[in-house]
Amino acid sequence: MPKMKTKSGVKKRFSLTASGKVRSNQAGKRHGMRKRSQRQIRENRGTTILKDMDARIVKSFMPYGS
Question: What's the average model confidence in pLDDT over 46-55?
């Protein structure tokens, strides 16, 4: 049986933690920073852990990631 392929867009955008949760970049940082508050800019730094329902969809495109 051949190996299953991982979606190439998913492997560029998401990674798994040691416990199996899905880590992704924060949304809302690409443009329009003038209209965002300083608090919003500060809280959107770094990465975030996806919610369970979203993580289930992402993991379906990572066949060997779970």
Answer: 96
- Mean pLDDT (the chain, rounded): 94
Rounded CA-CA distance 18/53 in Å is 19
HEC letters along the chain: CCCCCCCHHHHHHEEECCCCCEEEECCCCCCCHHHCCHHHHHHCCCEEECCHHHHHHHHHCCCCCC
Range 8-60 classified under CATH 3.30.70.120: no
What is the radius of gyration, based on Cα positions, of the chain?
15
Is pLDDT above 90 for 1? no
Find the length of the chain.
Answer: 66
